[in-house]
Amino acid sequence: MKPTDGLDGVTLAPFAILAGAGVSYAKKDHDWHLGLADRLVAADPRLFTPTRRVIVDLADPASEAAATEWWLTLTGAGGEGMVVKPWAGLAVNDGKGRLVQPGVKCRGREYLRIIYGPEYTRPEQLERLRQRNLGRKRSLALREHGLGLAALDRLAEGAPAWRVHELVFAILAAESEPVDPRL
Fold first, then answer.
1. Long-range contact list for 7-10, CB < 8 A, 24+ apart?
2. Domain Polynucleotide kinase-phosphatase ligase, which positions (predicted)?
3. Under 8 Å CB-to-CB from 46, ≥6 apart: which residues?
4. In which band, very low, low, confident or very high, does the pLDDT at 180 lie, cut at 50, 70 and 90?
5. Does residue 69 carry a pLDDT above 60?
6. What are the helix (H) ranges across the chain?
7. Which residues contact residue 10 at a Cβ distance below 8 angstroms, ignoring those fewer than 6 apart?
8. Residues 150 and 165: beta-carbon distance below 8 Å
9. How far is CA 133 from CA 113, 126, 130, 183, in A?
10. What is the rounded CA–CA span in Å between residue 82 and residue 71?
11. How far apart are the first and last CA of the chain?
């Protein structure tokens, strides 16, 4: 942790640029977003900090092994974990035309102890955790993501604020649905 005084000392680690004047960037691939984030870091390194990343070729076992080792080192040093994202960007559809989840948190063992308790790695605890039905949480996350993309599109199209706010309030309403917050 570094000291802060008001906003002095606060840094941002951008990983996506959602929109600009009159345009949504949801269809841009992750390389484009990270390239722009790197330009922000270069322009103002006091305000912006680099977003650490590993690009993984899932068809290459060595690439997967390198990413796994990176994650183990990161979490072993006390890092919370990482987020795995599709390279194609925020508005990716699967083979059936359904929206793909924009990211999956992969938290480390020690961070999960905070959430699930100190003995969560005991076999009976792990079995109980594996039995949870995550379908509802995934469905909610995808609905919220879709609403967010639609709000970005409306904003970029210059829609009246109330039309953008309709979707924002829909996201907030979805957030009020009861789900296990530890998922």
1. 10/47
2. 2-178
3. 11
4. low
5. yes
6. 30-43, 61-76, 109-116, 123-130, 135-157, 161-175
7. 4, 47
8. no
9. 20, 14, 8, 10
10. 7
11. 27
Q: Please report which confidence band the pLDDT of residue 42 belongs to, taking 50, 70 and 90 as the band edges.
A: very high
**DSSP, res 48:** B
- Within its chain, how far is the Cα of 134 from the centroid? 17
- The Cα–Cα gap between 71 and 54 comes to 9
- Residue 34, CA distances (Å) to 47, 66, 96, 128, 137 in order: 16, 20, 28, 38, 28
55-69 burial: b if 16+ Cβ within 10 Å, else e:
ebeeeeeeeeeebee
Instruction: Assign 3-state DSSP to the chain and report helix, strand, coil percentages, each to 5.
Output: 45, 10, 45
Mean pLDDT of the chain: 90
**To which residue do tokens 């994650």 refer?**
71
Joined tokens for residue 120: 């969560």
- pLDDT for residue 134: 80
The pair of structure tokens assigned to 100 is: 């793909």
**Residues forming beta bridges with residue 84, ordered by sequence position:** 104
